[in-house]
Design a protein that fits this description.
Largest sheet: 3 strands, antiparallel
Number of helices: 3
Strand content: 5-15%
Number of strands: 5
Structural class: mainly alpha
Strand order of the largest sheet: 1-2-3
Shape: flat
Oligomer: single chain
Helix content: 40-55%
Radius of gyration: 20 Å
Distance between the termini: 41 Å
């Protein structure tokens, strides 16, 4: 990919960026391209398991994933808490969108409710991540 010419400025070449699967032109700095085969690694250090776009949710920039081997190490209670938090966040967002379409706008309280539900889901994911890493390290 690094030897490809930029289609925008036609002078520069693509160089790797700090972001996963993206390249940027060294001349115009505007063109970014995502590689054809996208894969992410398990978040547990020294785990070499990867996953591609074919299963589950499509990959996005900044996405994190725990492989099956390490997901089994996460306690059931944490998995259940994460599942409930995701349900709460999904419901809150669905209600918000429904009310937004009906009312043609939203209030700050409605938006804060959705943000707090998403924060709850994010914290549950962070706890699952920490548990997987700790159990893999033997702590």
């Amino acid at each position: 990919m690094a030897d490809r010419q930029c289609p925008h400025c036609e002078r520069g070449r693509f160089q790797r960026t700090p972001w996963l699967f993206t390249y940027q032109c060294d001349e115009c700095n505007a063109a970014t391209v995502i590689e054809d085969e996208r894969r992410i690694c398990c978040i547990v250090p020294f785990c070499r398991h990867t996953r591609g776009d074919r299963k589950e949710n499509p990959l996005t920039v900044g996405m994190e994933w725990i492989c099956e081997r390490h997901w089994k190490l996460v306690p059931r209670a944490l998995k259940h808490r994460k599942k409930l938090a995701n349900k709460i966040a999904d419901r809150a967002e669905a209600r918000f969108m429904q009310r937004y379409e009906q009312q043609g706008g939203y209030t700050i309280a409605q938006l804060q409710r959705v943000q707090s539900a998403k924060n709850l889901a994010h914290k549950a994911w962070e706890r699952c991540k920490a548990a997987a890493i700790e159990r893999a390290a033997g702590l």
